[in-house]
Amino acid sequence: MIQGMLILLLCQLLGEWLMVFLGAPIPGPVAGMLILWLGLLVYGKVPNTLRLPAEGLIRHLSLLFIPAGVGLMVFAELLAAHWLVVLSSLLGSTLITLILTAWMMQSMETYKKSRRRGEHGDR
């Protein structure tokens, strides 16, 4: 459990350092998730030492939204003044996320089908 948390925190730290070093406008935790994803792709599976703390974090994910909710209340006037920018960025990011998710799912499905054909011959 501690080893898994250490891996998660190290990936986040690497992501933060990488984004500061590159000066890229991507949040460090997002870069850390990409680093973790690449590591898991290379490793080939999710080890149990990483699975347990990740499932624990997902189970209590709602607690991580409390700071965001407080921020919405604190900056409510600012958000109301710039509602069009906020709304368009939310809609744009949601659309991009949907397109990327659909593309990833389709790519993974195609990969799985081609892999099955390779293992069991043409059907």
TrEMBL record:
Listed name of the protein: CidA/LrgA family protein
One Gene Ontology cellular component annotation held by this UniProt entry: plasma membrane
Compartment(s) of residence: Cell membrane
Pfam families: LrgA
Alphabetic keyword roster: Cell membrane, Membrane, Transmembrane, Transmembrane helix
Parts of the chain that traverse the membrane: 25-44, 56-76, 82-105
Species in which this protein is naturally found: Nitrincola iocasae
Chief location category: membrane
Topology versus the membrane: Multi-pass membrane protein
Source lineage: Bacteria, Pseudomonadati, Pseudomonadota, Gammaproteobacteria, Oceanospirillales
InterPro entries reported in the protein's UniProt record: LrgA/CidA
